[in-house]
Amino acid sequence: MRIFKQLLQDEFGAILSAEAVVIGTIAVIGVSVGLNAASKSVNAELFEFASAIRHLDQSYSVSKVEIDGDWTAGSAYTQPDVKKSMKELEKSYLKEQKEVEEKLQQLQKELIEREKEAEEQETPRKKRRKKQRDESKI
Question: TM spans, by residue (predicted)?
């Protein structure tokens, strides 16, 4: 506990605002890259699951049933070609993946621009130091 109090009172290792922005930026980029990787993994697994479900043949056929003069009509369903529907599914998956990657790149560019703007701005601490240097010269 004593060490923690000393750390709070210590001003020799204070972080400047620009340094805090840089550290925050690195953390945000790291988190966004990590989430992007997790998102891609989840999407890939869901795509594989959808592919497995789609490959199940759901076609059926029930013939006419007649008992003591009463009857019901038969029924049938033939599933469309699996290869065709898989191509459509893959096409939509790739389109959505491309959109997500473009959005991520846009956000990363905005983050870098904000970081540059923050570095260019003078912090209050820098202003005080500059003022103190100017006063000491007089």
Answer: 12-35
